Amino acid sequence: MTEEGGVETTVVVIREYDPKTDRESVEQVESSCEVGPNGELSLYTDLLGDPICRVRNSPLYLMLVAEIVNNNNTNHETKQIVGMIRGCIKTVTCGTKFSRNKSADPPKPLPVYTKLAYILGLRVSPFHRRMGIGLKLVNRIEQWFGDNGAEYSYIATDDANEPSVSLFTGKCGYTKFRNPSVLVHPVFAHRLNVSNRVTIIKLTPSDSESIYRNRFSTTEFFPRDIDSVLNNQLNLGTFLAVPRGYIWDGSGKFLSDPPENWAIMSVWNCKDVFKLEVKGASKLRKGLAKTSRILDRVFPFLRLPSLPKIFSPFGFHMLYGFGGSGPMYTKYAKDLFGFAHNLAKEYKCGVVATEVSSEDPLKLAIPHWKVLSFTDLWCMKRLGEDYSDGSVGDWRKSQPGLSIFVDPREI
Ligand SMILES: CC(C)(COP(=O)(O)OP(=O)(O)OC[C@H]1O[C@@H](n2cnc3c(N)ncnc32)[C@H](O)[C@@H]1OP(=O)(O)O)[C@@H](O)C(=O)NCCC(=O)NCCS
After folding, report:
1. How far apart are CA 151 and CA 143, in angstroms?
2. Which atom of ligand 1 has the smallest separation from the CA of 135?
3. Please, what sign has the CA dihedral across residues 3, 32, 132, 25?
4. Which of 108, 240, 259, 302 is the most buried (most CB within 10 A)?
């Protein structure tokens, strides 16, 4: 955007975010931006004073701001931050190949990795939209992705978020790729029951890593640096549900001789990273939510489904790395969910959430409220056409698997 005529110039500068000078302005833009479609109710994020928080746990990340610089004829310069974007890069599984061995054993599936970039937290102030600023931010961050060797870039958005979908698919060359479901459940004032058919064991990060690498490394989007996820202080633990009476003797023994049924899940504490708030609810709706909460707190034995305080900033836990085996696997996963709900209650969270592939049987097994849950749209772009197709070919054209591994660092 340039208005030139010797009198006044206005340019949009895209530059790296500077925490010393930009924090307040960025927070102002963030708090003025709804996330997703602007319906009766809108979701807003509060980044708790750290605008980089949503990417800082990734191995490589960058945050850019868009600043309008105005120079008038008296050589007086004014600057205003009006938009921002975050991006991160990591290595993930994009497919599977089979080991070639000369023994009689069947070939083992092995992960095929790619360097993947992720765009998140793109925001443009409502007063500066449709001026090409969002597009400039995307173009510049993609340049950084390419400079750092990323082969693909993806974004997650709401299918109903027309500005975002048309920006990425219409102007930036992204294609619709996957439609995972975000399953959200309120944290009740009462505890959920966990069946006594299972024992739930908290694993050490190294046992968790062995199980995840051994059983899930061929799952799409599995991060090669899973160890840094599991050792991060936001990871509250990895939990294994096994039949009651099973004796745990380390991951080596477990992997060589697992019980018939088992399930695994990890819990990530998003509450210490950012908060969410639902705005736009009527007084009646807020009143009903408050009443349900009071009743649930006073009469927990009635097990009333109650709505927590989601109309003021609330935190949540993300449940990730759900998986397992056996005919009772989804039931065990549901037990893990109940356990995680009760943990989130201790942490005073508003909701617990998990994200699963559209094909995943867990979609039916994990309790959630339809009114709070939604379908995510992941769009993917191949950043360069000169990469070799390797053994998986073009990832964008591959069929979805039964599961995806959702990295909690990117929520
Ligand atoms: C999505 C968002 C970042 C777009 O920013 P922007 O600066 O207005 O986008 P641009 O001006 O660069 O638009 C580029 C193209 O995107 C598409 N687009 C942008 N806004 C649109 C809208 N409201 N309706 C339809 N298409 C739209 C158009 O194709 C547009 O090109 P055009 O203006 O030549 O038609 C902005 O609307 C926003 O901050 N929304 C709230 C936060 C959000 O939803 N972020 C995305 C999460 S992934």
Report:
1. 12
2. 12
3. positive
4. 240
Instruction: Please give all residues whose beta carbon lies within 6 A of any atom in ligand 1, as ranges.
Output: 33-35, 122-124, 129-135, 155, 157, 161-164, 166-167, 170-171
Which residue puts its alpha carbon closest to atom 22 of ligand 1? 163
Where do we find the tokens 């360097």? Answer: 115
Report the alpha-carbon distance of residue 23 to residue 276 in Å, rounded. 19
CATH number of 9-179: 3.40.630.30
Going from the Cα of 165 to the center of ligand 1, the distance in angstroms, rounded, reads 8
Atom index in ligand 1 nearest the CA of residue 161 equals: 44
CA distances from 363 to 28, 120, 358 (A): 37, 24, 7
Give the domain ranges of the chain: 9-179, 182-376
For residue 47, which of 120, 117, 118 has the smallest C-alpha distance? 120
CATH topology identical between 9-179 and 182-376: yes
Helices and strands counted in the chain (H then E): 9, 15
The stretches of 16-125 forming alpha helices (DSSP H) are: 19-32
Q: How many CA atoms lie within 13 A of 52 on its CB side?
A: 16
Backbone angles phi, psi at 268, to 5 degrees: -115, 135
Third-level CATH fold of 182-376: Aminopeptidase (3.40.630)
Q: Using most ligand atoms within 8 A of CB, pick from 26, 140, 167, 169 the residue to mutate for ligand 1.
A: 167
Q: Profile the chain (411 residues) by mean pLDDT over runs of 10 residues.
A: 63 96 93 66 73 89 96 84 97 88 75 95 95 98 97 93 96 96 91 93 98 96 97 96 96 97 97 80 78 77 76 90 96 96 94 92 91 90 73 83 91 79
Return the residue whose CA atom lies nearest to atom 7 of ligand 1. 134
Enter the tokens of residue 133: 């600023």
| Residue nearest atom 24 in ligand 1 by C-alpha distance | 163
